Amino acid sequence: MNMKTVLILLGLALATIFALVCVLLTRGRAPSICQHLPLEQEGTEDGQSLVFADLTSEEMVQVVRYLQGNLGVQLVDASHAKPSDNCIASVDLQVPAKAEVLRFLDGGGARPPREALAVLYFGNQPDPNVTEYVVGPLPTPVYHRDVTVQKYGGKVPYHRRPVTGKEYMDINTLIQRELKKAPHFLTACCESDGTDLAILTTAPRGFKSGDRTTWFVLFHNVAGTGYYLLPVGLEVLVEHRDLHVSLWQLHKVFYNGRYFASTGDLEQEFVAGTLEVVRLKKTQADEVLGSVRPRHSPDSPGPLHFEPQGPRYRVTDNRITFQGWSIAFGMNPNSGPRLFDIRYRGERIVYELSLQEALALYGSNCPGGMSTRYLDGSFGIGRFAYELVRGLDCPYTATYVDRHYLVESDTPKTNQNSLCIFEHDSALPLRRHFSDSQSFYYGGLRKNTLVIRTISTLINYDYIWDFMFHGSGAVEVRVHATGYISTSFFYGQGTDYGNKVGPHTLGTMHLHHMHYKVDLDVDGQLNSLETQDMEYELIKDPWNMQNTIERPYLRRETLEREDEAVFPLNVPMPRYISFASPNLNKWRHPRSYRIQIVSVAGKHLPTSSSMERAISWGRYQLAVTRRKEEEPTSTSIYNQNDPWTPTVAFADFINNETITNEDLVAWISVGFLHIPHAEDVPNTVTVGNGVGFFLRPYNYFDEDPSVDSPDSVYLSSEQDSGACGANPLACLPPTAACAPRLPPFSYGGFLNL
Fold first, then answer.
1. Domains of the chain by range and CATH?
2. Would residue 747 show up in a list of annotated catalytic residues for this protein?
3. Could you tell me which residue ranges the Copper amine oxidase N2-terminal domain spans (predicted)?
4. Residue 684 gets which letter from DSSP?
5. Does the annotation count 386 as an active-site position?
6. d(Cα 454, Cα 593) in Å, to the nearest integer?
7. Which of 122, 197, 309, 475 matches a 20 to 30 Å C-alpha distance to 500?
8. For the segment 15-51, what is each residue's pLDDT rounded down to a tens digit?
């Protein structure tokens, strides 16, 4: 080997060593931290959206102080108020009248006074009642006015008030006292003295107006697991209408298919040996039916959602802007999420988009299950929207927002991080085409969507409420149900009402129905309702008169009155239903937004039912009415405890008024029938349990507005597809070669329990 060859080999060896050293030195080095770029400001941020903003904690405190000092009656803190006391039940924003708001937003008028709506329970009066006051102006109130009669046509009877936490505590004390009368039975049936049993309410509470008699279902309570799957077969009926707790009574007892007058009678039959008892064993938390504790150690982490250059949306106070969208958001403690003044490209499309109610109606051969019709608004859809778990309930890097509420207390509470906002890459093209003829090219756009999400835990169920805004100008509303199923003790012909999901557990059939208010303002307030669908016509073949052809054609119709614009649940309705403006697009079609419902709702309660009018909104998958300030909501928190004389009956909104070129509201029902099965244990999964609707532009634009998106991708056979300047996808490798700035994980969702 000559010297030249040796030097060459030595040089190669040194180069190899140098390369290896470089690799080793850089392997453990962390990538650079992603740098967030400033967003371009969209429109003006002049605080106009604050006209819709939820009350601050400070404003709530000022309202409470004002009421305590100006009503002339003693007010007890609702957290420990007896039925015979006066108390402040809740304080929330009084949303100003639409005409006032539009004068302010669009006409340069004065900002409407900021006011609160306070609900008070007056139990310490000759005529106990519920009264609602508007209090203002905020932040320093100087006036209040009673709006109860104006809103409801009369006083709200006291028995219609929602049950408070203090009332539930007093009922629990009564039940525990009565259970002590059956010690031998409880030991035999449940290995319990009664104090470790969970007690679950049902609703409504009786069979006629004025009743306040509730079935309570008892369960084994194993810490850290869902007691809802562990019924012990015992249910009790409690009468709790009287203002004096000492006069409340246990009226009836149910056990394993039999009814008894009292727990004493139940104990007597057990001791006499005439009662058939199913002996249940207590189990450990990690073995119990329905445990959601992990069964395996963590695996490698899954995909991570992050924005290499920071969020592309902006959140300012209660306003979100994103690629042409502008939305004001908030939360009603009773009815839940509400959005206002939804605009796209500067034009208002929706004035109000709000959840109204969530109904869960059950069947069972046990009294508690068969009589349950939960109206979750009376419990508090917004109030029970707790902190979201970062990285699971929402993307880790989402923006999290606190929500404040004042319910059953004189002190505001905060559900921190209980609403999230994020941009979602659905891993699906919004649109695309690959051309393989004439010319060769590809054009497409990722389906990136702005999502506003909150999740309510209403006893056993968790509802995931999503509001999504697409680059095509479409709005999507969706709800998923998860959490625990509600169950009954399995006996007799239980499978007529569900499926057996445990040794003694019947997963009871039920339906979920949700109701939304959509106040569309399509190119102005004045809209009409238009429908389009297809028919076939049989014609002779124009180029050969001996043959015929079935030709589809469009059947168009403008609906003129409210009675024409109600579409019963589970009855086919026109496939295209649109709110149409009198103004035309470039192609001479009315600028419109289409309502597209995605729902598999169960059957509505028969109209012959004595309580049906309280949920009469559920008759219709869609009903369109003229907007009226005196019809702000389709239901009331008072309907739950007196559905037989509902405070608000949606059916009364429909009175055949004209709906041509008027300010219209769409009331939309979505839902599904749920027959629980083995795979609902431990929790119902969201897969297949999501319903909702779309608001889609229909000739509103002259073309798909997403063509203006900076995310659009175009590739051709004549260009360099790897050039970052021409193809945003080619920019991803260098742009995403950084580590996201992840905040430390924390969770405080148990603070307000």
1. 48-156 (3.10.450.40), 165-272 (3.10.450.40), 313-698 (2.70.98.20)
2. no
3. 74-143
4. B
5. no
6. 26
7. 197
8. 555 444 444 444 444 557 777 777 666 655 579 999 9
